[in-house]
């Protein structure tokens, strides 16, 4: 018998997919961990589960209690699924700039959703800080605190990294990933470096995020912006502290878009924006390393969460972008 014991038992153990068009183009094996196949639809299900289980183990979360979190959406969706399955409530503070699809999903699942103005981290009304204050003021509530809570990267250290290692028989030359909280990047990088210190670990960064300059010069510079959601940072989070970083690659919106449309048209994969940054960086690295290398990255979530943005010509035009101008290879 092989029966999953409810929703939480179905998180993780995702397939590792050879991205055929980009692998054939570069002569490298470019492999994407299919995190969009998690039951809540994103890589953040793993962190959400570990954070809730950790709070339960510590006796901080009791039946009927509330999980409060500031999130770009995916962590909130993962948390709400798990809260529903375990008898908790969920209060989600989300910047109002995030996609309507993610807001709608959160409300449908039954989270209490509070959209707030998107202000920088240093502002006391930043969504992350606000979620911490609200949790502290409530009875029988915990703050998931995904940016600083190390249960987040532990999920990837104990599950995502080992799964990749097993799925490739340890034949990995490089690991590349964008960071939001950094939990995915750091947990996998720490695990892989322990297994084989020769594996190169690189941060993929969108424009406007400070980790590229941090990796290159030790200083955080955040000029610019990106059409992607859920990734990029202006600080080193608790989850990123101590993570090995060999180098970083910066990917433009145009390149990100080219990648997700090629994945859609040539590989049959309908992906969100952070995947464009991840796979774009993997392709750039493949070209730099030369043929014959294996590079792993993350397919974080599905394009359906961004239908009204990345896959809407009018929205793209409002950002000065168009699919026609992307020089996509013609599909066979
Ligand atoms: N991609 C998407 C779409 C996300 O929502 C997130 C998390 N906000 C990430 C990537 C980054 O994951 P992590 O928080 O583990 O760095």
TrEMBL record:
Q: Which GO terms describe its molecular function?
A: cysteine synthase activity
Q: Which cofactor does it need?
A: pyridoxal 5'-phosphate
**Gene3D superfamilies noted in UniProt:** 3.40.50.1100
Domain of life according to the entry: Bacteria
Pfam (any one): PALP
Belongs to which family?
Belongs to the cysteine synthase/cystathionine beta-synthase family.
Q: Which UniProt keywords apply?
A: Amino-acid biosynthesis, Pyridoxal phosphate, Transferase, Transit peptide
Q: Which residues form the Tryptophan synthase beta chain-like PALP domain?
A: 10-301
Q: Source species, please?
A: Zarconia navalis LEGE 11467
The EC number on file is: 2.5.1.47
Would the keyword rRNA-binding be found if you checked this record's keyword annotation? no
Broad EC category: transferase
Note the InterPro entries from the entry: Cys_Synth/Cystath_Beta-Synth, P-phosphate_BS, TrpB-like_PALP, TrpB-like_PALP_sf
From the UniProt record, give one GO term of the biological process aspect.
cysteine biosynthetic process from serine
Quickly give the catalysed reaction: O-acetyl-L-serine + hydrogen sulfide = L-cysteine + acetate
- Please name the pathway: Amino-acid biosynthesis
User: What is the official name of this protein in its record?
Assistant: cysteine synthase
């Amino acid at each position: 018998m092989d029966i999953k014991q409810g929703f939480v038992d179905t998180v993780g153990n995702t397939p590792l997919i050879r991205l055929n068009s980009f692998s054939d183009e570069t002569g490298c094996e470019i492999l994407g961990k299919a995190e969009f196949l998690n039951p809540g639809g994103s890589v953040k299900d793993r962190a959400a589960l570990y954070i809730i289980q950790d709070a339960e183990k510590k006796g901080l979360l009791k039946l009927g209690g509330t999980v409060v979190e500031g999130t770009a959406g995916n962590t909130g969706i993962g948390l709400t699924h798990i809260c529903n399955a375990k008898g908790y409530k969920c209060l989600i503070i989300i910047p109002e700039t995030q996609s309507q699809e993610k807001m709608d999903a959160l409300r449908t699942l039954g989270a209490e959703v509070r959209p707030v103005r998107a202000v920088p981290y240093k502002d006391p009304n930043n969504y992350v800080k606000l979620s911490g204050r609200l949790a502290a003021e409530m009875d029988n509530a915990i703050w998931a605190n995904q940016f600083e809570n190390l249960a987040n990267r532990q999920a990837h250290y104990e599950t995502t990294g080992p799964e990749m290692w097993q799925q490739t028989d340890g034949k990995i030359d490089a690991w590349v990933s964008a960071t939001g909280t950094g939990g995915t990047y750091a947990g996998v990088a720490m695990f892989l470096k322990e297994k084989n210190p020769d594996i190169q670990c690189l941060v993929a960064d969108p424009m406007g995020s400070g980790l590229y300059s941090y990796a290159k010069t030790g200083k955080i510079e955040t000029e610019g912006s990106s059409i992607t959601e859920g990734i990029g940072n202006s600080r080193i989070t608790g989850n990123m502290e101590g993570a090995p970083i060999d180098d970083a690659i910066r990917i433009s919106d145009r390149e990100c878009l080219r990648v997700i449309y090629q994945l859609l048209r040539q590989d049959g994969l309908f992906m969100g924006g952070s995947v464009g940054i991840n796979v774009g960086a993997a392709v750039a690295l493949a070209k730099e390393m030369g043929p014959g290398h294996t590079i792993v990255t993350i397919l974080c979530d599905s394009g359906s969460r961004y239908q009204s943005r990345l896959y809407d010509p009018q929205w793209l035009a409002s950002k000065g972008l168009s699919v026609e101008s992307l020089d996509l290879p013609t599909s066979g």
